[in-house]
Amino acid sequence: MAVTDREAGVRGPDRLVGRLLGGRDGRSRAARVAVPVLAVLGALVVGGVLMALEGVAPLSAYGEVVSGVLGRTRGLADTAVVATPLILLALGITVAYRARVFTIGAEGQYVTGALAGTALATVGPLSGLPGPLLVIVALLAAVLAGAALAALTGWLQDRFGASVVITSLLLNYVAAAALAWAVRVGIRDPGSFTPQSRAVGAAGLPTLPGTGLHLGFLFALIAVPVLAVVLRRTRFGLRVEVLGANPDVLAVNEARPAAVRLAVLIVAGSLAGFAGFVEVAGVTDRLTPAFATGYGFTAIIVALLGRLRPLGVLVAALLLAGLSVGFDEAERAFIIPSSTVGVIQALIVVFFVAGEALSRRKGR
Amino acid sequence: MTAAVLSGIERRFGEGPPALDGVDLEVVPGEVHALLGENGAGKTTLMRILAGLDRPDAGSVAVAGEEITTFTPRALREHGVAMVQQHFTLVPTLTAGENLALARPEGALRPSARQVQRRVEELVERFRLPVRPDVPVAELSVGEQQRLEILRALDADARLLILDEPTAVLVDDEADALLDVCRGLAADDRAVVIITHRLREVFAGADRVTVLRRGAVVCAGEPVADHDRASLANLMVGANATNGTARPARHVEGSRLRVEGAALRRLRPLDLQVGAGEVLGIAGVDGNGQAELEELLAGVTAPDRGTVTVDGVPVPVGAPRERIARHIAYVPSDRYRYALAGPLSLADNLELGRGPSRRPTRARRWELAQPVLAEWDVRGAGPELAAGRLSGGNAQKLVLARELAGTPKLVVAAHPTRGLDPEAARMVTRRILDAAAGGAAVVWFGAELDELFDIADRLVVLAGGHAAGPFEPPYDRAAIGIAMAGGGGS
User: Fold this and answer.
1) Residues A98-150: pLDDT tens digits?
2) Distance from C-alpha of B50 to C-alpha of B83, rounded to nearest angstrom
3) A252–B332: do the CB atoms touch at under 8 Å?
4) Which of A92, A114, B188, B343 is the most exposed place for a label (fewest CB within 10 A)?
5) Domain check: are B306 and B390 in the same one?
6) B42 plus B116 within the same structural domain
7) B80 and B120 belong to one structural domain
8) What pairing do the DSSP bridges indicate for beta strands B279-283 and B458-463?
9) DSSP states of A293-355 as a string?
10) Phi and psi dihedrals of A104, rounded to 5?
11) Are residues B195 and B260 in the same domain?
């Protein structure tokens, strides 16, 4: 029967996701938590060796990392702020990857969302709206823009059989180019010498009293249980699981796989677009050419480390955000490049993937 | 001198009856040998062993007088055995010549386009098997692809060529041409074995025929000239006491299911009517239109033309939830591919296609699934188990528990007892017949005639996309056998 579309997937992530989702595999809960924890520890050890080779004392460097997060008044708040887009982006990726729709377009959708929200809030007829209303409208525009870009990848697969993996990756570059153009020409602040947009001003997100956190973190925190409920307690959640397990079964018994795939992509794109404008309105205040910092890719690591579960995503996002904030601080105190955090992140992924494979093998 | 001698071959897969139970076969050079049998008779298994694609549990194989000890495709190829499988093994993006060069490289470098083209042209010339040498295989017709498969085998100088259901994918003219080719190869002192279930080919092209039934030889290499259609059909399906008269007649009303001129791919326009309470059996060898009819009835694919209606309303296509809301139950032939999501729990699988958009808590869902699993006797498992871990019988019971819930109007059951142990098969059969007693029109696709004779009120045979029948009890086994083997007459 001609309903199969498994071929559209790719093998690599497919197998890892299969391992992550294969819930009751005989492994204890402890084993399932142990792998990511050990992966992080292993990455820190190897990262420490690398630092030692560079002539930096790893323990004092790590001490600086920890105190950068825990030892400062703003350390934890900074971590939460960095974690905010990661959480939102990784939740979207979680939905997509559970359905085995391997989009890597979160980065582009994030940028597009930021662009649409900023454009709406800084130029055009709606920019004069009062603050709270402007935030809502701008966020809506960001969600629609992110969703539209993600839906485009779904449509391309449905209509032309183009792999979501490829189209979503390539659209990231389109979005990057659009950002570059917009801040230089399209929505440029005419009063500024450097290329950047106007400040979003009234559309900025308020700070949560007494925390130094913007409202976006609260949104991200709320999104975690909401998504958990959507996945576990709605028909859409069941369809996501069935699409991931076997698209043919979905087609014969429940719904058209192409429709569910599109819905999944729209959810992921909406969250990414939302995250984009939250970042502008809560942190950067305006768009600059340097806005895209790769959160959309880091979020893939977050989603996988979080074992494609909303709560896991929250923990993983806070962990990676903490590492990033800590290393930034350590860079200021020591002579270690903050790019070390990229090495550590990469090592975490390597150890995690290897650990997953090994623990499965032993489990049998 | 013999081309191949197989003696006492035994092969068993898992539990259940052996696929091959002490089979002897002798093939001599210069003959076209037909290997005839129903689905699952063991024809392909036997030939896979001869081609080194499988190994026997017991028995011996000798090719050209040499005893075979290593059963690998390469070893058997070196002995001059080549098999053209039913599903071609060509690289679709490469040309004919490149496919040949891939199978038998000359030197370490990739040959030039001109070299490979010349190689194809030489072979085409020598064996008179026309194949276009310069286009990707994907653009060749099915007949050409098959000829290329044969050329590839001959390129390796195969002395014994095995063709598995070679005409299944060909139109009649092409099939005749292929049989001519086989005759030509035999005249060249090669041996050709044709696996088939069609009598037409046996009479059109073979010198001798061996008939397998349920893994045993029932006719060992007898000259085709000694047989007629009826005798071979009888050997193929076996003579048995069952003819459908032992079963009490059912109460049948009206015509719930109407198939009017519906055609899809290889399925020719078909008319069927099945009443409420009636069980219609669809017999025939796989690949003769069953899969297409199954898709049509279950609303997986729209007919190329014609209509399929239940109680006067067309079967919804590509809208499974609507199909289920309309009480159309579907038990697919491949339950692990189309009916059950292996990694999901039994409870989740029961919920497929039905249930509200807001789902109860997981604990509650398990609680709801529990009595269903108990009622349908899905054993050894709580509702939280992954469906992929169920045995075949329990998996099928799970499918039935979902599909037969409520009062189905139409039950499309494709090979519902395939691969099940006798006890599970009995229960599955009984539950489907219960649905018929409850007023459902049942269409039962079956491979075993005995089983169909036991359950069906009428039988339709699909062969080559055409429907023969309906046959009614008492069933005429010989006539049905002939219909399955490609029709009477000609």
Assistant:
1) 999 999 999 999 999 999 999 998 887 887 778 789 999 999 999 999 999 99
2) 9
3) yes
4) B188
5) yes
6) yes
7) yes
8) parallel
9) -SHHHHHHHHHHHTTT-HHHHHHHHHHHHHHHHHHHHHHHHSS--TTHHHHHHHHHHHHHHHH
10) -125, 35
11) no
Question: How is residue A83 written in tokens?
Answer: 């974690």
CA B458 – CA B453 distance, rounded (Å): 9
pLDDT digits (tens, 9 = 90+) for B308-363: 998 888 999 989 999 998 999 999 988 888 999 888 888 889 888 888 888 888 88
ipTM higher than threshold 0.90: no
CATH (domain of B185) = 3.40.50.300
| Residue corresponding to tokens 């819905």 | A263
User: Among the three residues B181, B202, B237, which one is the final residue of a domain in this structure?
Assistant: B237
Q: Kindly state whether residues B226 and B308 are assigned to the same domain.
A: no
Contacts of residue A138, Cβ cutoff 8 Å, sequence gap at least 6: A117, A118, A120, A121, A200, A203, A277, A281
Annotate B222-264 with DSSP letters as a single string. Answer: EEGGG--HHHHHHHHH---S--S-SSPPP--EEEEEEEEEEEE
In chain B, the number of structural domains is 2
3-state secondary structure of B161: strand
- Whether chain A has a CB inside 8 Å of the CB on B364: the answer is no
Contact flag B318-A256 (C-beta cutoff 8 Å): yes
Q: Which domain holds residue B180?
A: 4-237
Residue B247 lies in a domain: no
C-alpha separations of A320 from A273, A278, A298, A354 in Å: 21, 19, 9, 19
Q: What is the pTM of this model?
A: 0.77
- A232 at B interface, C-beta within 8 A: yes
The answer, for A53 touching chain B at a CB cutoff of 8 Å, is: no
